[in-house]
Amino acid sequence: MRWRPCGDAAALAEVDDLDTVLRLHAAVAAAREAGALPGVVDVVPAARTLLVRCASSSSLEQTVESVARLSLPDAVPTASEEVTIEVAYDGEDLTDVAGHLDCDVTEVVRRHTATTWRVAFTGFAPGFGYLVPVLVDGDAHPLEVPRRPESRTRVPVGAVGLAGEFSGVYPRVSPGGWQLIGSTTTPTWDVDRDPPALLTPGARVRFREVGR
Q1: I need a surface site. Which of 34, 104, 142, 181 has the fewest CB within 10 A?
Q2: 88 and 190 assigned to the same domain
Q3: Quick check: is 176 in a domain?
Q4: Would you state the pLDDT for residue 108?
Q5: Domain that holds residue 9
Q6: 167 and 199 assigned to the same domain
């Protein structure tokens, strides 16, 4: 674990892989819930980093030392509550995804809906969650596919896509290079909701088919 300063009251932990981020995030969350990290006001995971923000610069050094001493769980705990997103599997890249996976479209849909997903982190746009499958040791990733060779200049709101190890839902119209397999009317970002983001780090997600 390598630490980088971020302003006066935050530090960025750099680790080797996403699995370590998920386990470190779980350990920090458990320590905060137990009152062992009183100076921490925010924790932000990403693909290879975890940002820890403190209330003041005076508590930062002690917080970093405390986080560095945490024992990481062997497996990432699964959230008790589950978010269900209804999807019409009508994406422009559905056939291409089936080709990448050497299966038919029905099997792509089956794998996507049969998988329990976890929000690893958020980014790119407000409300965009990077979802990874919850796997048992030895399980292969069910839907790992490359990004499109060229990004689209306009991806519609609600588009459901795949890229690398991730699945995700576009919260608003934007450019994007993910393989689009479906669409949803479920809003993943709503400023009138508390919290605005439907998908937050650590949340458990399932997709339910409502059409093709």
Answers
A1: 34
A2: yes
A3: yes
A4: 98
A5: 2-68
A6: yes
* CATH number of the structural domain spanning residue 160: 2.40.100.10
d(CA 52, CA 59): 11
Using the structure block, give the residue that is written with the tokens 């994406």. Answer: 91
Please report the pLDDT score of residue 76 as a whole number: 86
User: What is the token pair recorded at 75?
Assistant: 């497996």
What CATH code is carried by the domain that includes residue 39? 3.30.1360.40
Model confidence, pTM: 0.91
Residue numbers of the chain with a pLDDT score lower than 50 = none
The pLDDT, as a whole number, for residue 212 is 75
| Residue 30: per-residue pLDDT | 93
